[in-house]
Amino acid sequence: MDIPSKYEPQKIEEKWYAYWLEHQYFRSLPDDREPYTIVIPPPNVTGILHMGHMLNNTLQDVLIRRARLLGKNACWVPGMDHASIATEAKVVAKLKEEGIHKSDISREAFLEHAWDWTNTYGGVILEQLKKLGCSCDWNRTKFTMDDDMSASVIKVFVDLYKKGLIYKGYRMVNWDPEAKTTLSDEEVIFEEKQGQLFYLSYAIEGTSDSLTIATTRPETILGDTAICIHPNDERFIHLHGKKAVVPVCNRVIPIILDEYVDMEFGTGCLKVTPAHDENDWKLGEKHQLETIDIFNEDATLNANGLHYKNKDRFIVRKEIVKELEKLGALAKVEAYTNKVGTSERTKAVIEPRLLDQWFLKMEDLAKPALKAVLDTQEVRFFPKKFENTYKYWMENIRDWNISRQLWWGQQIPAFYYGDGAADYVVTENVEEALKLAKEQSGRSTLTISDLRQDEDVLDTWFSSWLWPISVFGGILEPDNKEVNYYYPTNDLVTGPDIIFFWVARMIVAGYEFRDTRPFDNVFFTGLVRDKERRKMSKQLGNSPDALKLMEDYGADGVRVGLMLSAAAGNDLLFDESLCQQGKNFANKIWNAFRLVKGWEVTKQPQPDAAALGVAWYEAKFNETLTEIEDHFSKYRISDALMAIYKLIWDDFCSWFLEIVKPAYQQPIDEVTYAQVISLFEKNLKILHPFMPFLSEEVWQCMSDRTPEEALVISSWPEVKKCDPNLLPEFAYTAEVISSIRTIRKEKNIPLKEVLNLQALNLQEVSSRWDAIIKKLANIAAIDAISAAPEGAISFRVKSNEYFVPVTGAIDVEAEIKKIKEELTYTRGFLKSVVKKLSNERFVSNAPEQVVAMEKKKAMDAEEKIVTLEKSLAGLAES
Fold first, then answer.
1. 377-401: pLDDT as tens digits
2. How far is CA 861 from CA 713, 823, 830, in A?
């Protein structure tokens, strides 16, 4: 066949992906094989492929392709998350461009627009994952807003409500003024920010006195309803029972006493704003204070903000400070660093807000999930260090705020039939709701039109925490064939940044709804950072275009570039040169394939060198395969690839092919050729999970294959026993060959010039490797000698000394000068090491291995000096 001179990934990637899909190699149905299941961390429906997705999904594809080769029934379920906040923001923005405001249309009309947007733009990322080579079972693609997925969410809500685990409460929650919705505590990121501490003076009613209060948020004084001091603070005893006047709004408020106040912070006085701080709310409840909300939902001020009405909170902050200064109520301003809560989604600064919300009690639900990771190890974390993070969060877990003030998502199945706090029923559909409402209210005349469903939707994570169960229909049909076969799943690959949002909650759901774990292992990837260690982001502009990378380097090249530095749990410092390295590796394999396929094959005896080379590479392959298996068992995926990389690049291409390669324009014997092809195919099998396109292309070009013989469904090699002496003997032989090649390079002796090799009193060296030494180093003969010859260059391998007679081929004077310089340097080096070892303080305090290393340096230097002196003496005599 005509083999292209260059490997061109763009031409073959689409071809093989289409071939794999056509023959349904990724399709999985329950059968009698052992299942191996992965569920994809569902990307947002709004998303496009970025480096984090590339890393995460390449790792999953490596695991699923290897499982397929191991003969398991590999099932990788793809899908997308409806991403309530992000998607609603996209739809709102699109409508705004069309001159439509969300508030001007009905919920039904908005949802029509949302579905139109989803059907037009959603799912782009899944198509991009195909370009990466991801071998998902695309027939199983799920979306968290699919009818069955939504029905699962609603069923779970009703079930938990009936168990008394879901409740409605008027609580202080995290409000995102940009998305205009509440967030759970885990969706708030606390960032250290440089701000200011404002010292404000409050007049004491009926006196000429005042007190000073320190605050970072002067605009919230408009919501103050008390001032709190510590009852034991002697500085303020005279204020007990008094009232203060709030500047600007002139509201008279009580001065209350409570031990909650930190006498050491600020001035020891605390302004209490119950509507806008959780601790203030608790004080307000305790002391029965008035609650005054000063903010609109977008964090502009409402009517309680007086003349600042409809102005943004941060603009008001600047303006009210100026007003306070004019009023003489601003004592001073100091620079102040504090932690500010921001929205994980929109980055907006969070406002604490009092709202009626739905909560899920988590304390008891968390217990089996905590035990599964820390005690029974039913769920294992890789790397193990993340168990501590998990433990801390689960032991300090708070009730989960599961309601969101959005329209895109699963609408909460609570139906109100009156205005009272308890005038509602929770059930899966409106017909059942009407029946329950009649029973609960005693009003037989109620109709469906009298019912009003809760406006809020459920937190997106409330659907994705069911993901490993719901994708197999395990909520709606708990005993169906698929969930019983595929669940629990095997591996979850995800980032540690969603260990709370998703990983922990899935484990909770698994034990609550299936009474077992959702997966066996969790492999935490690191974050992808640039070479300056900055997290990749659109804002910084340091995140490369994923599709452009694949276009430039091929999907396999990018996969290798990512995997070579993707140690579990450690951040990946991405550099585009890594992808170039992957591309170079692909070209190396392609050139090796072209070399092998270019050989003429005839019937002739197999050379000894070739037979021994094949035996050695078999042993080397099996040693590496054992190492790879160990790496996979510990989820050291990067290390597994590096072992394969070194095996193919160094051992196969640089050594093995050179050993078996026939002489120039000479044929190769058919026995050796068949063995080379067989070993090449073994290489392709272990390479396939990492470089699926290249490996399939080479595999298919090796010989005519039927669809049943495709590499993607072939078999993973098995470790075989080999002669244990082969590897150490070859390592010795390779050192001999490398030393001769170094001499050639240093002395400018071309490879075509035949040399002789002399060995002095060889010990424990097998002569069976002589044929390989002769071939690869172009040696005519290897002679045993009893004394060091004159005019020869020597080198040592272990305790054996070799000589290469080269006096006629080198400039003796220049060589003598070079050796003298090296002798001077080595003697100086030895002197410095001996001085260090003579220092008792160093020897007694340094770690044992460090002292041993220094002693070895001294020994090596002494041996080198002896060798150099011999070489110098030989050259001098010549």
1. 999 999 999 999 999 999 999 999 9
2. 54, 10, 6
Angle between helices 546-563 and 51-69 (to 10 degrees): 50
Global pTM value: 0.84
CB neighbours (10 Å) of residue 758? 18
Lowest-confidence range among 163-172, 709-718, 799-808? 799-808
Residue-wise pLDDT tens digits, 140-156: 999 999 999 999 999 99
Task: Kindly list the distances between the CA atom of residue 354 and the CA atoms of 288, 351, 827, in Å, as whole numbers in the listed order.
Answer: 16, 10, 79
Distances (CA, A) of 507 to 171, 467, 488, 679: 27, 11, 11, 43
Q: How confident is the model at residue 451 (pLDDT cuts 50, 70, 90)?
A: very high
DSSP of 615-665: HHHHHHHHHHHHHHHHHHHTT-HHHHHHHHHHIIIIIIIIIIHHHHPPSTT
Check residue 703 and report its DSSP letter: S
CA distance 142 to 469: 12
31-165+365-399+459-525 maps to CATH 3.40.50.720: no
Say if domain 571-723 classifies as CATH 1.10.730.10: yes
The reply to whether CATH 3.40.980.10 applies to domain 181-351 is: no
Q: Torsions phi, psi of 520, nearest 5? A: -85, -40
pLDDT of residue 630: 96
Fill in the amino acid letter for 756.
Answer: N
Task: Give the contacts of 680 (CB within 8 A, at least 6 positions apart).
Answer: 592, 593, 596, 652, 698, 702
Surface-to-core class of residue 99, CB atoms within 10 Å of its CB (0-12 exposed, 13-18 middle, 19+ buried): exposed
Mean pLDDT of the chain: 91
Of the candidates 320, 610, 372, which has an alpha carbon nearest to the alpha carbon of residue 488? 372
In the block, residue with structure tokens 């001007």: 104
Q: What phi and psi, each to the nearest 5 degrees, are found at residue 499? A: -60, -30
265-308: pLDDT as tens digits: 878 899 999 999 988 988 998 999 999 999 998 999 999 999 99
- Please give the structure tokens belonging to residue 410: 């699963």
Q: Quick check: helix, strand or coil at residue 747?
A: helix
Q: How many whole angstroms separate alpha carbon 674 and alpha carbon 78?
A: 40
Cβ-Cβ contacts under 8 Å for 418 (sequence gap 6 or more):
441
CB 389 within 8 A of CB 496: yes
Domain chopping of the chain, boundaries: 31-165+365-399+459-525, 181-351, 414-453, 571-723, 748-877
What span, in angstroms and rounded, lies between the C-alpha atoms of 184 and 341? 12
* The pLDDT value given to residue 637: 93
